[in-house]
Amino acid sequence: MDVGIVVNPVAGMGGRVGLKGTDGKVAEAIERGAEPRAPARARRMLDRLAAVAPETSVVAAADPMGESTVREAGFDPARVVDPFEGEASASGGAPDPTETTAAHTAAVVRAFAGLEGDGPDDERPADAVDLVLFVGGDGTAADVAGALEGTEVPMLGVPAGVKVYSSVFAVSPEDAAEVAASFSRTERREVMDIDEDAYREGEVHPELRGVAHVPVADDLQSSKQTASGTVESLAEGVAADIRERDGEGVTFVLGPGSTVGAIKDELGFEPSPIGVDVWRDGEVVVRDAAEAEILDALGEENVIVVSPIGGQGFVFGRGNPQVSPAVIRRCDLRIVASRAKLDDVRALRVDTDDPDLDDDLSGWVRVRVGKFETRMMKIV
């Protein structure tokens, strides 16, 4: 099997510093102390691929879009595609990760597919890879799908962005490797993206950006769906429990989403748009907090209140990267969800960037579904 690997080196950098995305915000993310996320997730996928399919032939994008990570995982690329050839770097040396663009991604992917010029060939070229594995978020997925338009070359995403609304991603880096090594058929799936500026203002308007061939496997996540059903009584019950702890110095980290947003409304404050708010002793301590601000606000006793994201069942790792492993390890966990949302998922999932923590969080958990009612769900 021939696999093309391309990494968006700045994907997801805006998440932990509270930017809810990196499109057009790379410089600001760096100023806030953001660190690259995608290369480490690429390495996790490649390490697993080397374990389950060491015979895989890999075609890599030149650095900073994947080559070194591929070699570090033990693969000797059969070919390296350099989209920067002939370009002058602003630094005067090798291309800086912040200088990568959608055009570079598209150029790499078209080379992976054996395409020349601007239009697809009538027949699949002999040097086309069997699968394009990309590491990034929804914006990267849209770039890859656009470059593959008109071809039957399949694509599969290793999730490294903040949003990840499309149904072309594997659940985790390791799952992406498993799917790549074992898939036998593909199906057409939608590539979605949203306007990040509107997203930062609390408006989520998914837009169809393309349709791509994607390997079919149980470990692929589905698109986010809007769950139906009321959360009023749930919010009332949880807010009452939180207020009972007012005056005791308990810090509550309240995650994003409509369900926890209803709890914030019940507590009597305007929730930050799709952000994380910190509450203690009857007042908001930090609004729309980044990871560092959450850590600074934590006390002796801390509780995270979070709801699974959409129809994917992700408790951590999609839409709430501010709630990092460092935050999670210092807090008790409370999961809340409407009955309708849980009916749409078979299990809950976590993807914290810390495999050991993911293992610690796995297992059966109690999920609050009403004013008093709970349901047992398994984190897998």
Automatic annotation (TrEMBL):
The keyword Glycoprotein does not apply. Keywords: Kinase, Transferase. GO terms for biological process: NADP+ biosynthetic process. SUPFAM superfamilies: NAD kinase/diacylglycerol kinase-like. Transmembrane segments: none annotated. One of its GO terms (molecular function) is NAD+ kinase activity. PANTHER family: ACETOIN CATABOLISM PROTEIN X, ATP-NAD KINASE-RELATED. This is ATP-NAD kinase family protein. It comes from Halorubrum ejinorense.
